[in-house]
From TrEMBL:
Flavoprotein recorded as keyword: yes
Organism, as annotated: Streptomyces violaceorubidus
InterPro entries: Acyl-CoA_Oxase/DH_mid-dom, Acyl-CoA_Oxase/DH_mid-dom_sf, AcylCo_DH-like_C, AcylCo_DH/oxidase_C, AcylCoA_DH/ox_N, AcylCoA_DH/ox_N_sf, AcylCoA_DH/oxidase_NM_dom_sf, Glutaryl-CoA_DH_mitochondrial
Recorded superkingdom: Bacteria
SUPFAM superfamilies: Acyl-CoA dehydrogenase C-terminal domain-like, Acyl-CoA dehydrogenase NM domain-like
Protein name: Acyl-CoA dehydrogenase family protein
Keywords: FAD, Flavoprotein, Oxidoreductase, Transit peptide
Family according to the record: Belongs to the acyl-CoA dehydrogenase family.
Length: 397
């Protein structure tokens, strides 16, 4: 009888052996982004978060462009042309540092650049995408409004043609990541032809982007309102290849895919902090990691964390072969963000009072994820997307 092959050692950091599913190129992307985040973000993020600022964001954007992280899954125009799995791994590593950093990259690549790449004219692509891929120009995405978040079909922002053919935009957008540092905004507005997207240089007369302050979540991120008061744009500012909600919703689906991975990065960071703390913190004469209740918490956290990563990987492979449906993205976003928050909260209980300190990443990740839970589709909206897919019945209205 042939001898049984020797089993690999159990790896606490990868208990399911998910790394075996990754190609060398995947691992190289992951390690590059992880190394950049460890060098440029982790030493400073607690201070940035406490102060509610992201200093040097333009320099960070150029560095992210330098490692190919901006618009990395897009082809051409200076973009890396990476696989969906590689983009997901990058999102995981960025959010393991902080959700605000992943949001910067996600809004740049999966929303602003994606919209121009998929729906823009060749002139628009050539004008903006190479500079955005390099991080020389930061972009933002104007869809959500003060009174219309989950119901973008009833947005109030309007674009009208004047007698000379120019477009004139009026309206407000709210909770816009990168808004006050962006050089270009992709803005969605109602027109006589339906909802259309516009490429808006932020130095246009009538455009302003006051920054939103007093946030208790995504504090190391630039969040703004967009104000459009008679912003005049040439006729060719409109994205020519799409009309209706299909445009912005397809962008959001791509961005939500990144969240499926990114939320697991926040969860992993909190889980790792809890494991290390449990092995070193002593109570009743021994490390708390040696008590059954603590081990039960750690085991449950590990199960949900690595199930979530496996789900993200599965969705990435489907995206890479063109078979990922929006309902499946909703499945991933709904599950992984909810589980990530639960992992962070459980980690906080293991750390006890230290769990609320910025000396550890747990509370920072937990509060960030409260925003991730509701942006780009609330829990309820993704539940209804899945409910409709499962029953064939529309419960949105």
């Amino acid at each position: 009888m042939a001898a049984s092959p020797k089993l690999p050692a159990f790896d606490p950091a990868d208990p399911l052996g998910i790394d075996d599913l990754l190609e060398p190129e995947d691992l190289a992307v992951r390690d590059t982004v992880r190394g950049w985040a460890a060098d440029r973000v982790l030493p400073h993020i607690a201070d940035w978060y406490e102060k509610g600022e992201l200093p040097g964001i333009r320099e960070l954007a150029r560095e992210l462009g330098g490692i190919g992280a901006l618009g990395m899954s897009l082809e051409g125009y200076g973009c890396a042309g990476a696989s969906a799995v590689q983009y997901g791994l990058a999102c995981l590593e960025l959010e393991a540092a902080d959700s605000g950093i992943r949001s910067l990259v996600s809004v740049q690549g999966s929303l602003a650049m994606y919209a121009i790449h998929h729906f823009g004219s060749e002139e628009q692509k050539e004008a903006w995408l190479p500079r955005m891929a390099a991080g020389e120009v930061i972009g933002c995405f104007g869809l959500t409004e003060p009174d219309h978040g989950s119901d973008p079909a009833h947005m109030r922002t309007r674009a009208k043609r004047d007698a000379g053919g120019d477009w004139v935009l009026n309206g407000r957008k709210m909770w816009i990541t990168n808004g006050s540092v962006a050089g270009v905004a992709v803005v969605w507005a109602q027109t006589e032809e339906g909802i259309r997207g516009f490429v808006v240089p932020t130095d246009s007369t009538g455009f302003s982007a006051p920054e939103i302050k007093h946030k208790w979540s995504l504090r190391a991120s630039v969040t703004s309102e967009l104000v459009l008061d008679d912003v005049r744009l040439p006729a060719d500012a409109v994205l020519p290849e799409v009309s209706g909600l299909r445009g912005p919703l397809s962008c959001l689906s791509h961005a939500r895919y990144g969240i499926v991975w990114g939320s697991m990065g926040a969860a992993r960071s909190s889980f790792e902090a809890a494991v290390e703390y449990a092995k070193s913190r002593e109570q009743f004469g021994r490390p708390i990691g040696g008590f059954q209740l603590t081990q039960a918490k750690l085991a449950d956290m590990a199960v949900e964390l690595h199930k979530g990563i496996l789900l993200a990987h599965h969705l990435g492979r489907r995206m890479d072969v063109g078979r990922l449906r929006p309902e499946q993205v909703s499945f991933g976003k709904l599950n992984n963000v909810r589980e990530a928050i639960d992992i962070c909260r459980t980690a906080r209980t293991i750390l006890g009072a230290n769990g609320i300190s910025l000396e550890y990443p747990v509370m920072r990740h937990a509060t960030n994820l409260e925003s991730v839970l509701t942006y780009e589709g609330t829990v309820e909206m993704h539940q209804l997307v899945l409910g409709k897919a499962l029953t064939g019945l529309d419960a949105f209205r």
